[in-house]
Amino acid sequence: MGNGRTSRLSEVADGVIRPLNQTELKAAVALLKDLTKQEPALAEHLSTDGPLRSFVLSAFTLSPYLRDVANLKPSLLLEAIASPLEPQILDAIDEARHAWRPDVSGAVPAEAEVMARLRRAKRKVAFLTALADLARVFTARDTTAWLSAVADAAVAAAIDHLLLAGHDGGKLTLKDRDNPAEGSGLIVLGMGKHGARELNYSSDIDLVIFYDPEAGILKDPDDAMETYGRMIRRLVRILQERTADGYVFRTDLRLRPDPGSTPLAVPVEAALIYYEGRGQNWERAAFIKARPVAGDLKAGEGFLRELVPFVFRKYLDYAAIADIHSIKRQIHVHKGHGAIAVKGHNVKLGRGGIREIEFFAQTQQLIAGGRMPDLRCRPTEEALKALASARWIDEQTADELTDCYWFLRDVEHRIQMVHDEQTHVLPETEAELKRIAFMLGFIDTTAFSRALETALKTVEKRYARLFEKEEGLSSATGNLVFTGQKDDPDTLKTLKGLGFERPEDISRVIRTWHYGRYRATQSVEARERLTEMTPDLLKAFGESRRADEALLRFDNFLSGLPAGIQLFSLLGNNPALLDLMVNIMAAAPRLAEIIAARPHVFDGMLDPGLLVELPTRDYLGKRLKSFLSSARHYEEILDRLRIFAAEQRFLIGIRLLTGSIGGAQAGHAFTDLADLVIDEALKAVVAEMEAAHGKIPGGRVALAGMGKLGSYELTAGSDVDLILLYEHDDEAAESDGAKPLDPVRYFTRLTQRLIAALSAPTAEGVLYEVDMRLRPSGNKGPVATRLRSFARYQREEAWTWEHMALSRARMLSGDQRLIGEAETIIEEVLAAPSDQVKTVKDVLEMRALIEQEKPAKDIWDLKLIPGGLVDIEFIAQYLALVAPSKGHRVRTNELSTADALKALGDLIDPNDLDTCLTALKLYTDLSQVIRLCIDGPFDPSIVPAGLTDRVARAADSPDMKTAEAEIRRLSKAVRKVFSRVVAASA
What we know:
- This protein is mostly helical and about 1000 residues long.
- The strands form three sheets. Strands 1, 2, 3, 4 and 5 form a five-stranded mixed β-sheet that branches. Strands 8, 9, 10, 11 and 12 form a five-stranded mixed β-sheet that branches.
- Helix 23 (about 545-560) packs across helix 25 and helix 23 (about 545-560) packs parallel to helix 26 (about 590-595).
């Protein structure tokens, strides 16, 4: 504000505004002569023709208010044209802020004197900013900032005056008479445009006032309501009563909690209880812009911090949209809207107006601000920029709405500058509309109308895309009526036309919804939202294959929901989300069960970047860090990990289901997520153990991931294979805590705790099922393995299959030095030349044993079929073991199976390598999708039609028959490769 600039009205460009008409111009010339007689120095600046004189005369013809102020106080006009503007405005604001201060003798100014000082300061700021704005020396941004600053100063001065008066009157005991508000516990929040520093030229100011009875300034706390009530009534009088000097600001206190039944100042605790239990969505929207403007600013900031969970909820909240939109509709009803027009149009509340831009930003701030703190900003322009930066809206939308916002604010200011009236309605006569057009610098009303219509239509278009879909039960698709006991014949026809094979059954299901027989549809609001979205819902399901089946699955999902209003609001306002829901119901029963059990996983689907941003380790890590930031206790950390893991697994799955990532990317993402979550769980378990039992001298732990966890190939339903390694000082006898344990028991218990943390079922679900059978000696060995024992076992006792498993081992987390030591041991073991004949024999026996004991059920058992995933993994692991004997040392740890095969490429024929990689990609893409969508075996004859479509698409095949043929072709080819690479070496 100001930013060190010094602007002068003499900088005005020629013709920036033009006089209303010749009659008004003659009157303005006569007035200027009179003013020059009273302030002769005016002649020095305005006696000769030029841009400045022309501008002042034009301003007088266009704004009776400015003309009257100049006539009342000619010295103001002289100061405006003779001196830099910003220093004068700053002085006036400073005068307002100190209007309450006692004089040098210590005498406190009377209330009438405080009122006069505030009015003079406000008048000066308003006069100077109006002229600077009309002259285009100031922008609308400058004007709103200066007007907000003088409002802050006036309210703060009035509050300080009233607190001092209370102190001197014996009602209060201030902590610092020179700073009355400091530590007073009296909180004055500026709301709306005042809070956002966006006041318009003739704004009301919305204030909400709270007090803390525990602040200790009340002589008698029982008098709090009466004392503060009287004080706030005086505040309103000081600010808005009209005197010979005018008024400061009209003041509205109706945004306080339940204004019909609460006092003008509300106790802080009562306010917090109200917002927590009864606060409404429109109040959440109002508090986005709330800002402490007077009184105890520190207490005000603290109060707003406490309200953050109310305003910006942790989970994305689409139930707010319908509610806020209903407020907009009420404004339409009560304020009288019609089609976009110019004459008589309300530039604030009308279609395409300022309010729509504000709602556009605020609604999305409410939805996403809980998770994206950068969106919690007050000014509208800043909010639009933040939404664009967060990719919630595109840059073009933000730029268009910002330009329209400030253009409409310019129009609004000029409407109000005419008579200093709080109005937003354009004149209905051509003559008066011309006044506004000229004030804005347009040549005529036609040019102005064209520019205004363009802005209003741009805003309406952007706003309409977000909100304004008018649903009806008689839609373009035909009748959709589900009332009464009998089917509506036209509705059955419509359902048939939409793609449903059994329209009577579908009609009966939907009537069940509307009767409120499910918990999710018991409330009136939920049924209303469901009614609104039914046409879109049926159209979306009708377009899926086997539409009846998909809708019945949705019905099953709905029947188990504890509540429905959130879901219906969410789907009704997000067509893309509705399509995803249909996709899930048509193709992925497993995901459908997840959202039925944990509806909050939906929240992440609202992120516009979901299908664009890849779920990299960095992407997931940042979100996990943010999600855990406020967790303090062990169980809270674990619950947050469970919530985060469930949601992110679901979101990775959604990316896979929609095809925005492939099978290998999904495997890497599922694994990165597991790494991060397991790492945090281990840290929490170690901290908990140390708190209970202390530390073992020299004690260190590290986790090794085995199997698919080690090779970045987890699926949506994978277990995690882990080995916990530890080491400690040889002389360590026990831990040093209150409940000491010897090292073996200590690390055994730590491992058991980790297993429980990861796999114990809780209300928030299970993190991962844990398999530790790959540890030395398997289930017969201890759950925790000392590193030296691990090394000895791997070097002296391990079976070939255990070394095969070791070739996929990857150190995940724990003590970095121990990780390094373990990696060295693994590398040394795998680098040691092996008995190739024995290795071949063991690998072939192992494969034969698996085929005998776990034969493939059918061609879709991609893991176990001859030439399936096991064969490819065995090829890679066999080559890794025999490579050192053939003069190659290839480290396959931390590589996927595909990357391991490529790294071992020198040991396999290039054509065989291509065959294995092609088959592996197909198997991975298919198994990732299948494991995501269903539990148990995949049988194309009984799974949902949507899933067979998705599987065929994953196989890059036109249909399932072609996909199956490709699996048979590649599996035969892989089995031949296996025989050539392994069996031929025997």
